[in-house]
Amino acid sequence: MITLKSNREIQSMHEAGKLLAACHREVAKLIKPGISTSAIDRFVETYLKKHGAIPEQIGYNGYQYATCASVNDEICHGYPRKEPLANGDIVTIDFVVNLNGSLADSAWTYAVGDISDEAKGLMDVTLECLYKGIEQAQIGNRIGDIGHAVQTYAEARGYGVVREFTGHGIGPRIHEEPQIPHFGSPGKGLRLKEGMVITIEPMINVGVWESKMDANGWTARTADGKLSAQYEHTIAITKDGPLILTMQ
User: Fold this and answer.
1) Which residues bind a divalent metal cation 2 per the record (predicted)?
2) pTM
3) Binding site as annotated, residues
Protein backbone atom coordinates (compact mmCIF):
# COMPACT_ATOMS: atom_id res chain seq x y z
CA MET A 1 0.00 0.00 0.00
CA ILE A 2 1.24 3.49 -0.89
CA THR A 3 0.85 6.11 1.83
CA LEU A 4 0.58 9.81 1.04
CA LYS A 5 2.28 12.03 3.59
CA SER A 6 0.81 15.21 5.04
CA ASN A 7 2.70 18.50 4.95
CA ARG A 8 3.47 18.00 8.64
CA GLU A 9 4.89 14.53 8.00
CA ILE A 10 6.98 15.80 5.09
CA GLN A 11 8.34 18.61 7.25
CA SER A 12 9.31 16.10 9.95
CA MET A 13 11.04 13.92 7.36
CA HIS A 14 12.80 17.05 6.10
CA GLU A 15 14.22 17.64 9.58
CA ALA A 16 15.54 14.07 9.59
CA GLY A 17 16.97 14.69 6.13
CA LYS A 18 18.76 17.84 7.25
CA LEU A 19 20.43 15.91 10.05
CA LEU A 20 21.38 13.13 7.65
CA ALA A 21 22.90 15.67 5.23
CA ALA A 22 24.85 17.29 8.07
CA CYS A 23 26.23 13.89 9.02
CA HIS A 24 27.26 13.21 5.42
CA ARG A 25 29.15 16.51 5.38
CA GLU A 26 31.10 15.35 8.42
CA VAL A 27 31.71 11.93 6.84
CA ALA A 28 33.18 13.67 3.79
CA LYS A 29 35.84 15.22 6.05
CA LEU A 30 36.85 11.77 7.33
CA ILE A 31 37.31 10.06 3.97
CA LYS A 32 41.03 9.61 3.29
CA PRO A 33 43.47 6.76 2.78
CA GLY A 34 44.00 4.78 5.97
CA ILE A 35 40.59 5.21 7.58
CA SER A 36 38.43 2.11 7.88
CA THR A 37 34.76 1.88 7.04
CA SER A 38 34.27 0.48 10.56
CA ALA A 39 35.56 3.77 11.95
CA ILE A 40 33.19 5.68 9.67
CA ASP A 41 30.32 3.48 10.83
CA ARG A 42 31.11 4.18 14.48
CA PHE A 43 31.27 7.90 13.77
CA VAL A 44 27.85 7.90 12.08
CA GLU A 45 26.23 5.93 14.91
CA THR A 46 27.71 8.26 17.54
CA TYR A 47 26.85 11.42 15.59
CA LEU A 48 23.21 10.46 15.10
CA LYS A 49 22.70 9.43 18.72
CA LYS A 50 24.38 12.65 19.91
CA HIS A 51 21.79 14.60 17.89
CA GLY A 52 18.83 12.68 19.27
CA ALA A 53 18.35 10.36 16.29
CA ILE A 54 18.37 6.62 15.75
CA PRO A 55 20.54 4.87 13.11
CA GLU A 56 17.55 3.04 11.65
CA GLN A 57 19.46 0.34 9.78
CA ILE A 58 20.73 -1.32 12.97
CA GLY A 59 18.53 -4.36 13.48
CA TYR A 60 16.75 -4.03 10.12
CA ASN A 61 16.21 -7.63 9.00
CA GLY A 62 19.13 -8.57 11.23
CA TYR A 63 21.56 -6.00 9.81
CA GLN A 64 24.13 -5.03 12.46
CA TYR A 65 25.53 -1.68 11.33
CA ALA A 66 24.53 1.98 11.20
CA THR A 67 25.76 2.27 7.61
CA CYS A 68 26.30 0.32 4.46
CA ALA A 69 29.83 0.92 3.18
CA SER A 70 30.39 -0.34 -0.36
CA VAL A 71 33.91 -0.16 -1.80
CA ASN A 72 34.94 -0.22 -5.48
CA ASP A 73 33.08 -3.12 -7.15
CA GLU A 74 30.52 -3.42 -4.34
CA ILE A 75 27.19 -2.08 -5.59
CA CYS A 76 25.36 -1.80 -2.29
CA HIS A 77 24.95 -3.17 1.25
CA GLY A 78 28.67 -3.53 1.89
CA TYR A 79 29.56 -4.37 5.48
CA PRO A 80 31.72 -1.85 7.36
CA ARG A 81 35.08 -3.47 8.09
CA LYS A 82 38.45 -2.91 9.72
CA GLU A 83 40.60 -2.93 6.57
CA PRO A 84 41.77 0.63 5.77
CA LEU A 85 40.64 2.36 2.62
CA ALA A 86 43.43 2.83 0.08
CA ASN A 87 44.35 5.73 -2.14
CA GLY A 88 42.32 5.42 -5.35
CA ASP A 89 39.33 3.62 -3.81
CA ILE A 90 35.80 4.86 -4.07
CA VAL A 91 33.34 4.16 -1.24
CA THR A 92 29.58 4.61 -0.97
CA ILE A 93 28.26 5.41 2.51
CA ASP A 94 24.51 4.79 2.84
CA PHE A 95 22.43 5.23 5.98
CA VAL A 96 18.92 5.95 7.26
CA VAL A 97 18.10 8.46 10.01
CA ASN A 98 15.13 8.11 12.35
CA LEU A 99 14.47 11.46 14.02
CA ASN A 100 11.45 11.36 16.32
CA GLY A 101 9.88 8.62 14.21
CA SER A 102 10.46 10.31 10.83
CA LEU A 103 12.89 8.72 8.37
CA ALA A 104 15.31 9.96 5.72
CA ASP A 105 17.64 7.90 3.54
CA SER A 106 20.66 9.00 1.50
CA ALA A 107 23.79 7.48 -0.01
CA TRP A 108 26.87 9.24 -1.33
CA THR A 109 29.95 7.97 -3.16
CA TYR A 110 33.26 9.42 -2.01
CA ALA A 111 36.71 9.48 -3.58
CA VAL A 112 39.52 8.21 -1.36
CA GLY A 113 42.60 10.29 -2.10
CA ASP A 114 43.55 10.51 -5.77
CA ILE A 115 41.24 8.44 -7.95
CA SER A 116 41.46 7.37 -11.58
CA ASP A 117 39.78 9.17 -14.46
CA GLU A 118 37.58 6.09 -14.83
CA ALA A 119 36.38 6.36 -11.24
CA LYS A 120 35.81 10.10 -11.48
CA GLY A 121 33.87 9.71 -14.71
CA LEU A 122 31.66 7.06 -13.10
CA MET A 123 30.96 9.26 -10.08
CA ASP A 124 30.12 12.27 -12.24
CA VAL A 125 27.70 10.33 -14.43
CA THR A 126 26.04 8.63 -11.46
CA LEU A 127 25.46 11.94 -9.69
CA GLU A 128 24.01 13.42 -12.87
CA CYS A 129 21.76 10.35 -13.20
CA LEU A 130 20.37 11.08 -9.74
CA TYR A 131 19.37 14.61 -10.73
CA LYS A 132 18.02 13.48 -14.10
CA GLY A 133 15.73 11.15 -12.17
CA ILE A 134 14.73 13.83 -9.67
CA GLU A 135 13.72 16.17 -12.52
CA GLN A 136 11.04 13.62 -13.45
CA ALA A 137 9.61 13.33 -9.93
CA GLN A 138 6.64 15.53 -10.75
CA ILE A 139 2.94 15.19 -10.00
CA GLY A 140 1.32 13.37 -12.93
CA ASN A 141 4.51 11.78 -14.22
CA ARG A 142 4.97 8.04 -13.98
CA ILE A 143 7.64 5.91 -12.34
CA GLY A 144 8.85 4.86 -15.77
CA ASP A 145 9.72 8.48 -16.54
CA ILE A 146 12.23 8.47 -13.66
CA GLY A 147 13.83 5.20 -14.71
CA HIS A 148 13.94 6.17 -18.38
CA ALA A 149 15.73 9.43 -17.61
CA VAL A 150 18.39 7.62 -15.57
CA GLN A 151 18.82 4.73 -17.99
CA THR A 152 19.12 6.76 -21.18
CA TYR A 153 21.65 9.16 -19.68
CA ALA A 154 23.87 6.39 -18.29
CA GLU A 155 23.66 3.99 -21.22
CA ALA A 156 24.36 6.74 -23.76
CA ARG A 157 27.71 7.11 -22.01
CA GLY A 158 28.48 3.40 -21.96
CA TYR A 159 27.58 2.57 -18.35
CA GLY A 160 25.52 -0.27 -16.93
CA VAL A 161 22.39 0.50 -14.87
CA VAL A 162 21.79 -1.92 -12.00
CA ARG A 163 18.39 -3.64 -12.26
CA GLU A 164 18.25 -5.79 -9.13
CA PHE A 165 18.13 -2.92 -6.61
CA THR A 166 15.77 0.02 -6.79
CA GLY A 167 14.57 3.11 -5.03
CA HIS A 168 11.47 2.86 -2.89
CA GLY A 169 8.81 4.62 -0.93
CA ILE A 170 9.79 5.63 2.59
CA GLY A 171 7.86 6.77 5.64
CA PRO A 172 7.32 5.05 8.97
CA ARG A 173 9.27 2.11 7.48
CA ILE A 174 12.54 2.12 5.55
CA HIS A 175 11.10 0.35 2.53
CA GLU A 176 7.55 1.04 1.41
CA GLU A 177 5.75 0.85 -1.90
CA PRO A 178 6.26 1.82 -4.65
CA GLN A 179 9.55 0.48 -6.00
CA ILE A 180 11.43 3.02 -8.12
CA PRO A 181 13.54 1.26 -10.79
CA HIS A 182 16.33 3.19 -12.46
CA PHE A 183 15.43 1.82 -15.88
CA GLY A 184 12.15 1.78 -17.75
CA SER A 185 9.90 3.27 -20.39
CA PRO A 186 8.45 6.78 -20.34
CA GLY A 187 4.75 6.98 -19.61
CA LYS A 188 4.70 3.57 -17.94
CA GLY A 189 4.15 2.57 -14.34
CA LEU A 190 2.41 4.12 -11.38
CA ARG A 191 1.46 7.80 -11.61
CA LEU A 192 3.14 10.07 -9.07
CA LYS A 193 0.87 11.92 -6.66
CA GLU A 194 1.30 14.81 -4.28
CA GLY A 195 2.35 13.55 -0.85
CA MET A 196 4.35 10.56 -2.05
CA VAL A 197 7.86 10.35 -0.57
CA ILE A 198 10.36 8.18 -2.43
CA THR A 199 14.05 7.54 -2.78
CA ILE A 200 15.86 7.83 -6.08
CA GLU A 201 19.20 6.05 -5.83
CA PRO A 202 20.79 5.02 -9.13
CA MET A 203 23.54 2.41 -8.93
CA ILE A 204 25.68 2.72 -12.03
CA ASN A 205 28.49 0.39 -13.13
CA VAL A 206 31.51 0.91 -15.35
CA GLY A 207 30.80 -2.46 -16.98
CA VAL A 208 27.80 -4.77 -17.11
CA TRP A 209 24.69 -4.09 -15.06
CA GLU A 210 24.45 -7.58 -13.55
CA SER A 211 25.40 -8.24 -9.94
CA LYS A 212 26.43 -11.17 -7.78
CA MET A 213 25.86 -11.68 -4.07
CA ASP A 214 28.51 -12.24 -1.42
CA ALA A 215 28.22 -15.16 0.99
CA ASN A 216 27.01 -12.80 3.74
CA GLY A 217 23.68 -12.53 1.94
CA TRP A 218 23.77 -8.73 1.94
CA THR A 219 26.61 -7.35 -0.17
CA ALA A 220 26.04 -7.12 -3.91
CA ARG A 221 28.95 -6.51 -6.25
CA THR A 222 29.38 -6.15 -10.00
CA ALA A 223 29.40 -9.41 -11.93
CA ASP A 224 32.53 -8.39 -13.85
CA GLY A 225 34.46 -6.88 -10.92
CA LYS A 226 34.37 -3.33 -12.30
CA LEU A 227 33.58 -0.20 -10.34
CA SER A 228 30.10 0.83 -9.16
CA ALA A 229 28.84 4.11 -7.70
CA GLN A 230 25.59 5.23 -6.09
CA TYR A 231 23.97 8.50 -5.06
CA GLU A 232 20.62 8.71 -3.28
CA HIS A 233 18.22 11.38 -2.09
CA THR A 234 14.85 11.18 -0.37
CA ILE A 235 12.30 13.16 -2.40
CA ALA A 236 8.82 14.46 -1.60
CA ILE A 237 6.39 14.89 -4.51
CA THR A 238 4.84 18.34 -4.07
CA LYS A 239 2.72 20.77 -6.08
CA ASP A 240 5.84 22.93 -6.43
CA GLY A 241 7.93 20.09 -7.86
CA PRO A 242 10.29 17.58 -6.27
CA LEU A 243 11.48 18.56 -2.80
CA ILE A 244 14.83 17.04 -1.88
CA LEU A 245 14.63 16.22 1.84
CA THR A 246 18.28 15.12 2.17
CA MET A 247 20.07 17.94 0.35
CA GLN A 248 23.72 18.32 1.32
Assistant:
1) 105, 168, 201, 232
2) 0.97
3) 77, 94, 105, 168, 175, 201, 232
